[in-house]
Amino acid sequence: MANHRREVPTLKSLSKRQWMKIVSAFVALGMLSGAGLASRHFYESQRPISQVTTYSATDSNALAVSRGTDREDLRGMSADTSYVRVTINGRSRMVLGTDFTDVKSVLEAGDITLEPNDTVSPSLSTKVNESTVISISRAGADLETSDADIAFNTVRKETADLPKGQEKVETEGKAGVMETTSLVTKVGGKIVSSNIFASYVKTAPVDKVILVGTGSTAPAPSTSAGSSNSGSGNIGTTTPVGEMQQWAHDTLLSSGHSEADFTATVYIISHESGWRVNAMNPSGAYGLPQSLPGSKMSTAGADWQTNYQTQLKWFWGYCNSRYGSIQGAYAYWQTHHNY
Where is the G5 domain (predicted)? Predict the structure, then answer.
């Protein structure tokens, strides 16, 4: 009977030439794999990596992070938080909330009041999601931008580089700039309504820094420019300006905090909101500490939208929770220009 079984070559039956072909094939495959990995690593190293960065009100376009005790992303305190873009006469801002159902609920959360002749698209009863863009057109209204000064503070820092009792101005103070955009409606050239649309720190104020000597009366050894140790571990004592700062100062000291804690508070709030209770970045950040969303401050009080004391209490609690102290938040701000 004929044998129809197919003979299968074994490793022992392979010729020397066949072995060389097999080895050559494996070498070629190895070279191709190595080249592929090298090419991949090269292109990955050349491709910029987009990372989420922290948020500061001094950047009007920043939408990266939400201020909470765990530093969550833009969604806020929980996965239920959502955000919807609202455009009024061509200018946009974000509104954040946890219970959006329709267009009307978004406008209420954003404290956006409609006037009788406003045109809203989509309609107030339209269901919304995060891809929804609400457009409002207000006839006879224009977006007007104005600048206002942010007062600077005077900070006194002790230094052994000056004889005791001697003072020297290290830095001259300079007012900051608060930019406010309002939707203004006029009739016959007369303003009948003006609603703030956005208000944020355009340019932070520069404190006036006065060095106060604590050294001996003998002339101090000459030092090169910029080598003074006045700023090393010494953030100074700040003189309060206005009612809010005076309350913050007295409250902190009466609760066992230090002058340095107040200095840290003034520095951060001045850079974040210019001490405007209703400061509102287009991203949705709100208030003195620029909480994002502002509703997070409700944990400190139901009047978080208008009460500076409630906002400051939330701010101090956030600093202690996130950085261990107010000065810890200040140190982080100095390095990262946000907190």
Answer: 136-216
